[in-house]
Design a protein that fits this description.
By secondary structure, this protein is of the alpha+beta class. It has a single domain, classed as LCP protein (Aminopeptidase), CATH 3.40.630.190. The chain contains eight helices and twelve strands.
């Protein structure tokens, strides 16, 4: 009997050792595959984008509630010239619930920029890069931002074409062509990166920038839902490689992959969105030196933004 028990224990140890070795090899294979895919994506993009990136300081802090808030900026300058941020968003990740939120700040929002006085919020980027914009958001809305990410528009195009070879399905609500470099017709259709970029940048209609912000949030929700698939997950390392030369950020690759995997999970796809200024808290005003601005009820918008992020 002792001999049988001894043989049984040895058999269990062998099975455990075999299972451990197989698991180790699988993890190694996945890691190797991920590195290869990342490098392939990176190499292809570097040949077109080049390696030059402007270096920014960014003294960000984690939100007091423990969330990770990221300043997302859209730009078409690639750091080659001083420009105002075309798109300003706050992406918030709650590690406890795995939830994601997105707040868009209208670029014409009239606020106090530390050291420069009252101006449109997107002027802060031109004056002092993402750090001054972080300070501006902190001073006016009391929101802490730990990371920043500036995405070049060409990077957006490359990312979409890599993730969605057949395009992203979008219901285009009207004809669009002015100042976007492409022509879009109404209806449900699949848009490649170039046409999707035109869709999210269009603002030459009656609703102007408000419609543009609404379309940007709509596209992010659609991308989130359409990205989450078995076919897309293996592409994640390559997608990160493709976008790396086009994005200027203080996040490392591990941070990006970690949050991207969470975003693609079943719980992370439902992105809640809001816009600053919120309805009935602003009016249009023309200011000397700044042009047409959105004069806002600062306290009301600060409260709405903080409550949205804390829910």
């Amino acid at each position: 009997m002792r001999s049988d028990r001894h043989i049984g224990k040895k058999s269990k140890k062998r099975r455990f050792s075999t299972a451990f070795i197989i698991l180790f090899l699988l993890i190694g294979a996945v890691a190797f595959y991920s590195v290869i895919q990342y490098r392939q994506g990176l190499k292809g993009s570097q040949q077109e984008a080049g390696d030059t990136k402007e270096e920014y300081s960014f003294n960000g802090e984690r939100d007091k509630n423990g969330y990770t808030n990221i300043l997302l900026l859209g730009s078409d300058s690639r750091g080659e010239a001083v420009s105002r941020a075309d798109t300003i968003m706050i992406a918030s990740y709650n590690p406890d619930t795995g939830s994601y939120k997105l707040a868009s700040i209208m670029r014409d929002t009239y606020v106090n920029i530390p050291g420069y006085g009252m101006n449109k919020i997107n002027a802060a980027f031109a004056y002092g890069g993402p750090e001054l914009l972080r300070q501006t958001i902190k001073e006016n809305f009391e929101v802490d931002l730990k990371y920043y990410a500036i995405l070049d528009f060409e990077g957006f195009v490359r990312l979409i074409d890599t993730a969605f070879p057949n395009g992203v399905e979008i219901d285009v609500e009207k004809s669009m062509s002015k100042d976007i470099g492409v022509t879009l017709e109404p209806g449900i259709q699949r848009l490649d990166g170039e046409h999707l970029l035109g869709y999210v940048r269009f603002r030459q209609d009656a609703v102007g920038d408000f419609g543009r912000v609404e379309r940007q949030q709509k596209v992010i929700r659609e991308i989130g839902g359409q990205l989450a698939s078995v076919q897309t997950l293996p592409k994640l390392p390559k997608m990160v490689g493709v976008i790396t030369p086009y994005i200027n950020t203080n996040m490392d690759t591990g941070d990006v992959l970690y949050m991207a995997r969470g975003f693609l999970s079943s719980d992370g796809r439902d992105v809640q969105t809001m816009r600053v200024p919120v309805e009935n808290t602003f009016y249009n005003q023309r200011v000397s030196g700044a042009g047409a601005v959105l004069a806002i009820d600062l306290e009301a918008n600060k409260q709405e933004l903080n409550e949205f992020l804390a829910k």
